[in-house]
Predict the structure.
Amino acid sequence: MNTHTAKITSPRSSTILAAAVLTAAVTLGTGVSAASAHSLGSPSESEFGAPDQVSELEFPTTISHRGGADVYPEESMEGLTASAKDGFLPEMDIQFLEDGTPVLIHDDTADRTLNGASGPIRDLSREEWDAATIKHPQGGEPAETVTLDEALDELGGEVVMVPEIKPGATSAEVDQVLDVFDERGLKDSLIVQSFDFEAAETIAERGYTSLYLMGSTLPTESFDEISDAGIEWVGPSKNLPTRDLRKLDKAGFHVAPYTLATAKDGHRLPGWIDGYFTDDAWTN
């Protein structure tokens, strides 16, 4: 049973969904056979294929990194909804605007992924954010920028989502994001991630499934320390040696390496891996 509250109507929701249809059509027209094989289109045309509760996940689970950043505009509603529709867990990154609004973008600056905006995300006004667009990875139509609230209006509680609270967030901002999740009743349908151990610990303490991200070496914290913090998932770099991945698995964690180019690369991982992040979940 879903525990999310009723959706809040966003002033940009209809525009974003209309853009999703247009971008899907452009993607199909540019010959992305992997995406077209899954009949991508308007999310309203069929139910989402991804489960709506963490407890319902089947392993290994495919996490669509930044909403499929090699197929769709990075962190766009188009990519997030297409991922959910085709059974992949949409992953996104949370940064903050000048007024504290949580928004979806990976970098702490706008320059790489946005048109019409530049400089630090924390220096952008809400008006500047809304006016910017997200570049398409294959030169197709750009997409509208997305706030956290807009993403949750469309997908919150409908599918398992994997938001990352980016490094640099203060403890108050971590609590701010978790408060938003609390208000929407999303404890059962989120895997919340962070590279910061204290943030990952807070996420677990607040009752959310916590994923502790790490690099290509094992973290300084012991496995017992991570487990005692209530953290159930770990996200090591794909470059972490297999012997160390196995150590994490034997310690009882759900292990989900990042970031593989395609799902085909995910299928080559050891069978005990519980998930993986990929920029193209459609190419098998």
About this structure: The first helix runs from residue 13 to 29. The longest strand covers residues 89-96.
